[in-house]
Specification:
By secondary structure, this protein is an alpha+beta fold. The protein has helices at 7-18, 44-51, 53-72, 129-135, 141-151, 163-169, 266-272; strands at 75-84, 87-96, 101-107, 111-117, 122-127, 156-159, 195-201, 204-213, 216-223, 230-237, 242-247. The protein is built from seven helices and eleven strands. Strands 6-5-4-3-2-1-11-10-9-8-7 form an eleven-stranded antiparallel beta sheet.
Length: 284
């Protein structure tokens, strides 16, 4: 068995943990618009400010502040689901501005991955039983058993100098990928006016901004009271629907190195021939 991910698994893992706005399918265009979304779906805040008077402009400005708060948050959690090039995925990632990150991702047809990045930039991956079985499909039963004994409930240590680990752990820095915006930018008219409603989202009063275009519905939720936070962004319909929910702003991440006995030693890893990572792991 090769020590590298099958191409589909590597791509799916990177997509799911990266959770970059473009990778998750946010918006239909390739260029960011002024509210921080992709070109086709991104006119919610811009048009709110332009076409519905002072009240809507205030909502648009609050949405800008909400994006800023997510980008600047010392820590937060993102829960994501969606499709990317036909692959369905769900995930939960918790990260802070001190390099700590923990995450779990499930990719349909591939399986489950868990990830930890500690403050000193050490990274650890754990492959679920379903992921191992997918990677070992077609291999002899004895080989599958050996791989399961080696990898199940254990962690592979590495660092982000290795491409596979670097690609996967890009998702820990998802907030940095949000675009910079200013209130002055919220004034375009090219997208038409969205609907603005007051709703309750996860127990919090929120403003929901809805925009429909090209067979897809884009919804952005921002807190209606107190400090402005972007709470959710989602697209229904279109080629790559998705949902991203942001929460736990400022709460500790506590990304800790797994117990030494649960980390696969370098020499044991080399003998086993890992089915799920590329490159050579570092020592624990």
């Amino acid at each position: 068995m090769s020590a590298s991910l099958r191409p589909s698994a590597r791509r799916a893992a990177a997509v799911a943990l990266t959770v970059a706005l473009g990778a998750a399918g946010c918006g239909q265009g390739s260029e960011p618009s002024k509210d921080g979304k992709g070109g086709g779906g991104g006119g919610a805040s811009a048009s709110a400010g332009a076409e519905k008077g002072p009240e809507a402009r205030a909502v648009a400005h609050r949405l800008v502040d909400g994006f800023r708060s997510v980008k600047a948050a010392p820590s937060l959690t993102i829960e994501v689901s969606g499709l990317n090039e036909g692959d369905a995925f769900t995930g939960r990632i918790r990260a802070d501005d001190r390099n700590e990150c923990v995450g779990t991702v499930h990719i349909a047809g591939e399986g489950t991955l868990k990830a930890i990045r500690t403050r000193d930039n050490r990274v650890y991956l754990q492959m679920g039983e379903d992921f191992l079985k997918t990677q070992m499909a077609g291999e002899p039963a004895a080989e599958l058993k050996a791989q399961m004994e080696l990898f199940q409930d254990r962690w592979i240590a590495g660092n982000t100098d290795t491409k596979m680990f670097r690609d996967v752990f890009n998702g820990c820095d998802f907030a940095k990928g949000l675009p910079e915006m200013t209130h002055d930018e919220v004034g375009g008219t090219e997208f038409g006016a969205p609907d603005i409603e007051t709703v309750v989202l996860n127990g919090r009063k929120a403003l929901r901004i809805t925009k429909k275009e090209d067979g897809a519905t884009l919804r952005l939720h921002v807190t209606a009271e107190g400090k402005a936070y972007l709470l959710r962004m989602e697209q229904k319909g279109g080629d790559e629907p998705y949902s991203m929910t942001f929460s736990d702003f400022g709460e500790p991440v506590r990304a800790e190195k797994p117990p030494a006995g649960d980390i696969i030693p370098r020499e044991e890893f080399a003998r086993g021939g890992a089915p799920g990572t590329a490159g050579t792991p570092s020592t624990a």
